[in-house]
Amino acid sequence: MLPQLPARLKSLSIPLRIQVTNGAVFDLSPNPAVTLTIKDPSLFNELPSATLDRLGQAYVEQRMDIDGLMPDVIRIGTALSDALNEMQSGLNSTLKAHDKATDAAAISYHYDLSNEFYQLWLDPEMVYSCAYFETGQEDLATAQLAKLRHLCRKLRLQPGDKLLDVGCGWGGLARVAAREFGADVFGITLSRAQLEWAQARNAAEGLTDKIHMELMDYRDLPRDGRFDKVVSVGMFEHVGYANLPLYFQTLFAAVRPGGVVLNHGITARHVDGRAVGHGGGEFIERYVFPHGELPHVSLAIAEMSEAGLEIVDVESLRMHYARTLDLWSERLEGNLDKAAGLVSEQALRIWRLYLPGCAYAFRQNWVNLHQILSVKPYDNGENDLPWSRHYLYK
Q1: Each residue of 10-57: pLDDT tens digit?
Q2: Diameter of the chain measured on Cα atoms
Q3: What are the structural domains, with CATH classification, of the chain?
Q4: pLDDT per residue over 57-114, tens digit each?
């Protein structure tokens, strides 16, 4: 007997085709743009309560296949979830454990996947964070280089400055800071694969006398004010709510009086931690960033201020990150055959959903991205910043 379309789905008008492997086909509207092929018959009856997390989990675990352009997949999947589920609410009150071993394992899970895989869709500098677009028409490499220079200008880097790069990744920022601004950089990461790749690249460019990188937890950083400037890009999302005070206290202690601290990271939509996205966050927690927690920008600012840092500039790059993720997704989709030879089928399915899904989330204002510039004042309250911000836009 052929399955019947569940009643909750019959009234929907979404450009979606639901196809079952036994041959049954159901179009929820004319001219469907996306086809879900149900491989596990039990999944068919679960669809009326589908959230983004459940849909994504079913795809990752190969209970269904998806045909269609990935931006359409995300848009239509969200429309389906919107129609079937009321907005989630309630506080995100459960704090996750963030000891050194847990954080190291989480970082390794995400970043040690495969350097070659990341090379397929990142820019030549391997920058895995939001790019910076002046017009929105720049290619990925141009926009990422613009972001790195934008950060260095915000830091007012000068030749000989001692820069601490917390969560240095594959070293793109460190290389620009050393090569173009003359800084002496100390970078730390918890990813062994990133560290090895970055050290090889630094050596190939003759920058080993300007850049030193180590496998180190931020909690082990020196707290003697030895650095002139501190930058952290895409790092505090992994710190956890409970450890934000310690994290910013550590950055405060690492920089000299008068020094600058710049934090660049993804921030939450709601001040009180209410969930958005019909399970999108749960999917990311399950498959992409285990133990990740996104603070609201107000919480980040509060904790930075409590640590003794003076906030001087805050810039949102939400739409810049949406564009960055679009470009990453397009590059991955154009290299699927190569990607399939570098990571497991499950990993590839995760990333095919994650990149366009995050682009959609930023575009819908479910999440944001903020650069927060701060200074460590001198004992008399003074700082070294110029009166205007003209230096940002040279």
Answers
A1: 778 899 999 988 778 989 999 999 999 999 988 888 888 788 888 999
A2: 81
A3: 7-84 (no CATH), 100-393 (3.40.50.150)
A4: 999 999 999 999 999 999 999 888 888 775 333 344 455 556 776 666 656 656 678 8
- From residue 140, alpha-carbon distances to 179, 235, 246, 288 in Å are 20, 21, 35, 22
Contact 167, 232 (CB under 8 A): yes
Are 263 and 372 a contacting pair, CB within 8 Å? yes
Q: How far apart are CA 122 and CA 329, in angstroms?
A: 10
83-87, 170-174, 182-186: segment of lowest average pLDDT: 83-87
**Radius of gyration for the alpha carbons in the chain, expressed in angstroms and rounded:** 22
Determine which one of 130, 152, 168, 358 is catalytic: 358
Q: Report the distance separating Cα 304 and Cα 267, nearest Å.
A: 14
In the numeric block, the tokens 């999944």 are attached to 43
10 Å CB burial of residue 359 (0-12, 13-18, 19+) is buried
Q: Known catalytic residue: 358?
A: yes
Helices (H), the chain: 7-10, 41-44, 52-60, 70-84, 100-111, 115-121, 140-155, 172-181, 192-204, 244-254, 280-287, 297-306, 318-333, 336-340, 345-363
d(CA 124, CA 133): 17
Q: Going by C-beta distance under 8 Å and a sequence separation of 6 or more, which residues neighbour residue 21?
A: 37, 38, 39, 41
